[in-house]
Design brief:
Its cofactor is Zn(2+). Helix content is about 35%, strand content about 20%. The chain is of the alpha/beta class. α1 runs parallel beside α3 and α4 packs parallel to α6.
Amino acid sequence: MKKSKVIISCALTGSMHTPAMSPFLPITPEKIAEEGIAAHRAGAAILHLHARDPGNGRPTPSAEIFMQFLPQLHAETDAVINISTGGGPGMTLEERLRAAVQVSPELCSLNMGCMNINLSDLAGRYDFKHDWEKPFLEATEDLVAKNTFRDIRHIIETLGPGGTRFEMECYEIGHLHNIAYFADKGLLKPPFLIQSVLGVTGGMSADADSVFFMRQTADRLFGGDYIWSLFGAGRHQMGVCTMGALMGSSVRVGLEDSLFISRGQLAHSNADQVLKIRRILDELGLEVATADEARQMLGLKGRESINL
């Protein structure tokens, strides 16, 4: 893995946190755009994007809603637009791809395998604002986030011909081997952006051993042909990012991954988290990549080549 500047990604809203968990979670297209612009100005080169129903905050695959904030983000920043193909619970594969197919962005997220994700313990902790929130969380006890080999191949073959590359999310070691499987078939080509996801219930733990094992395995499989990034879920966010950065990784923060800025204190914005990790990187003597530097590092097609 080549030593390079640190790319900061910011995941603005996600599809698992619910509105009752934080008044600062961006829900409306206007707020998502505002948060994305501020996060980019704070130092995020990549914006990882989901959409939500502006009326009740529920995750939605609606391309129409995506298009209420994507053009503004594209016009007012030079950030790399990264549209999720993971969508949210209950969405079909075709629904998950709608916005990405329409926009053909520089980057899309790509979950590299199926995952059990369980947030049901949170269902008893909040006074919910909307009828859907509590049942949504309770149902995650029986949730499998489906990303079979056929699903992954379909996503690659649908978006890849337009020049879209992928943020490949790996929740466990087997997902790294899945990248190697598709690379061996010629469907994925380097440089690979490998996003290690640690601390999600159902995936690898957020500790130093997991961080090291992820890097060691990726080094063995891909040598210098990848850019490594990682994040820790919830309370693990800043600690895991710091561990990874010390070992040569890029980092991801944002309210999708954690609602907090420090122990027991909600983050008031995505930009708060970007500014915090940037301060940490500065103290470690690490340089932060601009959006254009990230494009060069990742071999992206360029912002002028997307449909916005």
